[in-house]
Amino acid sequence: MVKLESVTKKFKDAGLYDIDVIFPENSICTIIGRSGAGKSLLLKTILGLIRPDFGRVLIDDIDIYNVKYKKLRDIRSKFGVLFQNNALLDSMNVYENISLPITYRNPNVNLEIIRKKVDDMLKMVYLDNVKDKYINQLSGGMQKRVAIARALIADPEILFYDEPITGLDPLTAEGIIDIIRNLHQNLKKSTIVITHDIKEFIDFTDYIILIEDGRIIFVGKKEDFMLFDNKISKAYIKMAGKL
Amino acid sequence: MSYINNFIITAGDITLFILRVLKNFKMIFKNYRLIFYYMFEISQESLMILVLSSFFIGMVSVYQIAYQLRNVLPMLYVSTVLTQAVLIEIGPIITGIGFSGKVSSQISAELSSMKVTDQIDALEVMSIDPIEYLVMPRVVAAILIIPFLTLITEFSIIFGSYIISVTALKMSSNAFIDGSKINFEMFQVFNGLIKSVMFGFFTVVLSCYFGITAKTGAKAVGRATTLSVTTSAVAVVILDYILTRILLLW
């Protein structure tokens, strides 16, 4: 379980202020907010990439900023992350990218098993015949799918999607949303989606967190969000076509 | 004052970075494939430039030495002076500066663009230590390959000077070779190689540091590359002085 206690991080032009939140297990939680509201900063803080000035980030009751690097690596093995710009290693082909989280940690692992696993992951994201292609030979949507496959291969407990459909055309975006929805239905993993476009996720999200200027202004169930009386939340509900 | 503060903070950061790199040396065997790959990449990138530039440096140097020693010493000593200078000083420093220009810029540009596009964060999240995966193999590859590059550079300089000596300066081949042997000691070669290993280590560590700590945005890539080239070139010259003092005492 992911839990944040009074997390505060100040930068010159951005920050997080007194973030207290628990992400319920096995559910989809969508973090929404305007560009620059602090969503990606919050994600990087949860992932152990940006140390908060104050407060604690707990993963299964372990403060990730208060453990040794080796332990942090063990904790991170529970994460599967789709970064906003995919963050695929462009010096590698699709197969090497997807298998990297496993092959690097276990160099003696049976390559046949890895090949089979990579094939399964590619099937899961509806990709075929791309294993030998390099990242720059793929379209934006295909790269996104490869990045999702990489996030899944080590069988993580928690999945993070940072702006999964930003910059994609509507058809491709729909395909990515289908994948996220199906993965959650089939795998039932804790899922945290970060987006500024709630419209595409409102139907299947369980919880919503609304961030504005680094502060949480709403956290709760989707149904409660619909009733939340606030100018910004109303704008999001309207955007989602539910008002 | 803030300039001094920044300098002290960066120097501290670099020291901690070096310690992390050294700590990861225990993972050499796990990463041997990457090390071989980078050894090949580094030599492929720098070999032609080093050979070509050092060949011409050799040709120019021998002209200058011959001119300065005219009417002072017999021509035989031209190759003595040149060989000594190349083995002890010129060979390692040309390799070091060449390294900081070609290899260092390539490494910092590559790592900083990885940083800007979140690839380094992605490695962290995949529980892959970027120091172990991206930095240590490059540093070890540089340390292993730079002595060979230095020897090739030294050979190219001496060969360039030999060509000019026997063609333009009308020196006999035997005189050039005999002159080169005067005062020659094997430890001079080793001293030069020790220097070059240190140049390779610091050049690559600095370029990795500036690459991996780049800020966000396209401008950051340019800034990291410029910083890495200039800092490593200055570091090579400063190190050269320090190592020369130490090695001469030793």
Structure description:
The complex is a heterodimer of chains A (243) and B (250). Chain A has eight helices and ten strands. Chain A has helices at 39-46, 69-76, 94-103, 111-124, 140-153, 170-187, 222-227, 231-239, and strands at residues 2-10, 15-23, 28-33, 54-59, 62-63, 79-82, 158-162, 190-195, 207-212, 215-221. Chain A has a six-stranded mixed beta sheet, with helices on both faces. In chain A, strands 2-1-4-5 form a four-stranded antiparallel beta sheet, covered by helices on one side. Chain B is an all-alpha fold and 250 residues long. Chain B is elongated. The mean pLDDT of chain B is 92. The interface between A and B is medium-sized, with 25 and 14 residues.
Structure characteristics:
heterodimer, A: 243 residues, alpha/beta, 6-stranded mixed beta sheet, 4-stranded antiparallel beta sheet, 8 helices, 10 strands, 36% helix, globular, B: mainly alpha, 85% helix
Q: Order of SSEs of chain B, N→C?
A: HHHHHHHH
N-end to C-end Cα span of chain B: 39 Å
Q: Estimate the global geometry of chain B from the Cα principal axes.
A: elongated
- Helix and strand pattern of chain A: EEEHEEHEHHHEHEEEHH
Largest inter-chain interface? Answer: A-B, 25 and 14 residues
Report helical residue fraction of chain B: over 70%
Annotation, overall tally of beta strands of chain B: 0
State the total count of DSSP E strands of chain A: 10
Envelope shape of chain A: globular
Mean pLDDT of chain B: 92
| Oligomer state of the chains in this structure | heterodimer
Number of continuous helical runs of chain B: 8
Largest sheet of chain B: none
Radius of gyration of chain B: 21 Å
State the secondary-structure class of chain A. alpha/beta
Stretches with pLDDT under 50, minimum 5 residues of chain B: none
Strand order of the largest sheet of chain A: 6-7-8-3-9-10
Could you provide a short overview of the structure?
The complex is a heterodimer of chains A (243) and B (250). Chain A is 36% helix and 25% strand.
